[in-house]
Amino acid sequence: MPYLVAPEALEELLPDQPRYRVEQLRQWLYRHPVLTTAEMTNLPKSLRAELAGRLWPMQVEAQQTGDGGRTVKWLFRAPDGAAVEAVLMGYPRRTTLCISSQAGCAMRCTFCATGQFGFERHLAPGEIFAQVAYANAHLRAHPMPDSPARVGNVVFMGMGEPLANYDSVREAIRRMIEVAGMSGRSITVSTVGITPGIDRLAAEPWPVTLALSLHAADDHLREQLVPQNRRYPIDDLLAAAQRFQRGHGRRVTLEWTLMADVNDSADQARSLAAIALELGAHVNVIPMNPTPLAPQQRPSPERTRRFVDEVNRHGATCTLRDTRGTEIDAACGQLRVRAAT
Ligand code: SAH
Fold first, then answer.
1. Domain residues of the chain, as ranges?
2. For residue 157, how far is the Cα from the chain centroid?
3. Which tens digit of pLDDT belongs to each residue from 113-144?
4. Is pLDDT above 60 for 340?
């Protein structure tokens, strides 16, 4: 299971191989991932055979395509039954991969499908990184018509709370940057706002992008949507965001899942704009993707437009996230696979 050992420890997997062979394998795993070991053409057949069938730490249980081939969702399954989803989205100038940091999630946000199903387990660094490697291997074999054939952006917006699995997420990010050669800026960690985790991230050597799932401008409303707010209320969160920005000089993104008659009022828009202005943060509005267990609904397009305009009118920069993957249940907050055990 080469992705389950650290890239620097690959030698241990291949004790009888010369050092340059280990380096060749490392290149295949981290720089030019391929779907099967058969494609690792510069490795001896015996070594390829030895690794065959053991390349990926998780099996692909299902692959679904939507949006005319520009969105692909994978359901991976680990040997212990843990299920993991990732979503690849091709755009004209970038290819973005949304990955999971945990199987399930313990945060229990009331509008999120993953939250309704609860927590299964943390993912290991290799299981997190393998999602990126697999998407790159897939893109190499099946490029999308108008998008780069390589994952340029990674967003931790699949299943799980990345800052609740800090060490593994950190190590996966380290592999993306130091071994696979991605830029820190192109990696976005999205969080409900676990402030000690934000501070740890701020102290890391690489400037990743931080996205805060705010969704409400006052604690009373936020507690109803994001139960973690009781532990880390809005003021604490914003203070941590400020420290993060000061450390890395990176503008934070505020995420706002827009729910009809919940957080789509002009009042909330104004308070959100004030928060964003004070932080110097960018606002990203995500129209709620309805899920069977959540009572909240998506507002009308007119209402959505009005909310975004209201935030902008107060001087903050606010954009509307395009909705990808709805037809294959791959949109934000719809990932929710449970183990079959
Ligand atoms: N736990 C992290 C990352 C996973 S969720 C976090 O909360 O940020 C990624 C984003 O999708 C978050 O902003 C989350 O609030 C949002 N989201 C969750 N459920 C959603 C839904 N049903 N519709 C739209 N966005 C949703």
1. 1-55, 57-340
2. 3
3. 888 889 999 999 999 999 999 999 999 999 99
4. no
Q: Are residues 85 and 74 in contact, defined by beta-carbon separation less than 8 angstroms?
A: yes
Flag whether pLDDT at 186 surpasses 90: yes
Pocket of ligand 1 (CB under 6 A): 107, 109, 111-112, 156-157, 161, 190-192, 213, 255, 257, 286, 288-289, 291, 332-333
CATH architecture of 1-55: Orthogonal Bundle (1.10)
Residue 183's φ and ψ, nearest 5 degrees, are -95, 145
Ligand 1, atom 21, lies closest to the CA of 333
Residue closest by Cα to atom 9 of ligand 1: 157
Residues 6+ apart with CB under 8 A from 298: 258, 259, 260, 287, 288, 289, 290, 304
Angstrom distance (rounded) from CA 105 to CA 156: 13
Q: How far, in Å, is the centroid of ligand 1 from the Cα of 333?
A: 5
Task: Provide CATH code, domain 57-340.
Answer: 3.20.20.70
